[in-house]
Amino acid sequence: MREIVFRPGDRAAFDFIGGQEEHSSFLPEGKDEYYLRNSQIADRNYKWRRLSEQEISQMEKNGNSCLDWGQIFVEDPFDPAIYKNNSFAGLVRIASSVQGTLEYHDFLLPTGISNSRIYSCDIGRNCAIHDCLCLSHYIIGDSVILCRIDEMVTTNHAKFGEGIIKDGEDESVRIWIDPLNEAGGRSVLPFESMICADAYLWSVYREDSVLMDKLKDITQKSVDSRRGYYGVIGDFCVIKSCQVIKDVKAGEGAYIKGANKLKNLTVKSKLDNVTQIGEGVELVNGIIGFGCHIFYGVKAVRFVLGDNSNLKYGARLIHSILGDNSTVSCCEVLNNLVFPGHEQHHNNSFLIASLVMGQSNMAAGATVGSNHNSRGNDGEIIAGRGFWPGLSSTLKHNCRFSCYTLLTKGSYPAELNIMLPFSMVLENRRLDQLEVMPAYYWMYNMYALERNSWKYRTRDKRKNPVQHIESDHLAPDTALEILAGITLLERWTGKAWFKENNSFIPPDSECEQKGKELIISSPETVNDLFVSGEMMERGKRPVRILKTVKAWNAYRDMLLFYGVKTIACYLNRYGIHYEYFAAQVPPQINLIWVNMGGQLVPEEKVDALRASIRQGLLSSWEEIHAQYDDWWNVYPRDKAENAYGILRKLTGAQNITGEMWNKLADSAKKIRMYIEEQVFLTKKKDYENPYRLTTYRNTRERDAVIGKLEDNKFIETAKKETSKFFGILDKVKA
After folding, report:
1. 148: buried, middle or exposed (CB in 10 Å: 19+, 13-18, 0-12)?
2. What global pTM score does this model have?
3. What is the DSSP string of 475-490?
4. pLDDT of 10
């Protein structure tokens, strides 16, 4: 089949929309091929004029050529001297430019155009365009630098990374992304404003076929399907030393250097939130958020990258949506939906077919989803917030992990369902058993737990956040899991006791009652029991729950502290008296919440959103995002009511009186002191470890390198948090 088509003269620069026979129907009657292009620059107020005969003569003397100089328009002031050795074709319009230079990071170029072929472009004021072999159908903003680019073109059906089809295109050319599942059963369409909440809504509620159809329709209608839009390079962009740039639009201030191939992309960028793309990068079919950095051999195909995120050092991101404030480098990430705050920066880590709900970290050698335990490649892994698979941990599909699960090094041979949050999971090879320690972080690594919440807040450098994010480790999602975890510990403890005593195992409710009784009144008895975790691993080896009593008490402290802190902060923020608030709390509260891309939302509100979309009450992504904003505005109230519901469960009281509230507040103070103390003690372990001293000549050298314990900034932050919390409690007591 012949691929190269010859067109006589400069016709390649014309007929962008409708001149070719197969495209003739796409040009509306009475419109020329520039009608969409003109609308794209309507707000620029350029004052075009044709070249004079003298100017044409000067241009030709400078080595410029054009088959029809009547198609070249300029704006005053115009200086022919700064245009040298160029070939122009089609309608080319050049805004006012004067002799001068543009400088970016010591890269200095004169204004004007040289050694370039320009086909049907609009070029902004005072640009520097040099050595561009083929610049076709682009609108270039003001003060833009383009240098040493092999190919920079826009097609008449350009979609700029969005999952739409243009007029006359077949459905088969639509670009889908397949997160969570390699087999494609959760496909979503990317669009410019997509955030993780949108991807979650689309990829998870798959049984809602009407919703799926509506979301596809909303996405298609969000972009004009007419052919003929030009690529746009925003003001003050710098693009240099690149090979192929095709169907790409970039926002103002974007910096692109040394890229191999950029195709079908939207690069979002603003002068105060610049996105940068660097050497050896190949990006195809994607949306790139504000303030992103992509460097050093990255390969990304069919992807959405959230704001303030980084791809570096040969990372591979394919069929994946990566949330805001994330970093992926060196490794491979395939078919995933990853919520904000994800860190994965080791060459031999691998993440595939997973939903990771943010604030997560992948250690070196971790291969999450290395094998499918089915007859096809349709396995999935779901991990709650704070997921941390440790060094060289390998997992098989399908698995599910509660929030803040820490996996120690191990090759886990079968599917896992870790239902206990804040757990450490480890393989005891000597005894051939899986062991799970609930509430591990709270009991033994408070420094990491508290610092994580602080870290994700302080590292959020987004200028205009769209995706709302809950960063506190104690929140409605973890509270629900803790509540369920308490029940499981009681049930499994009761069953262990009945088994130990050769008794008939009664229903779960009786086991829970017996387990709770033993944990409270006879903890030494529980410590001697083999408490088995049920349905936590698909295998024959036993699963043992470690430190059951201590974990049960830790869970209750966590819930008490969450409940009191959340309500106290709400009352203090809005100046509300406790008893007034308590009187308004509904008698029944649904404690089930959904993590919508990092934003926590009561389940019934998500269900109502789905119904509104199905019924056509919300018919655009802007309206759906406005609903997310409304949820966020009332989140403090919803969260406070959730906390009250948790305290009801914890205390067994439907109405928590002012007297009870004051006692709970006093207990919360003690827990806050425990938190501060544990932050210090867990960090102190690093300084007391004798092996940590082996690389230093003395403690003075160590302190000079890593700092003194007493100078640790986060320990100081923990002390300030305690003082602040005490002050709030004193204000809101009944």
Report:
1. middle
2. 0.94
3. SHHHHHHHHHHHHHHH
4. 58
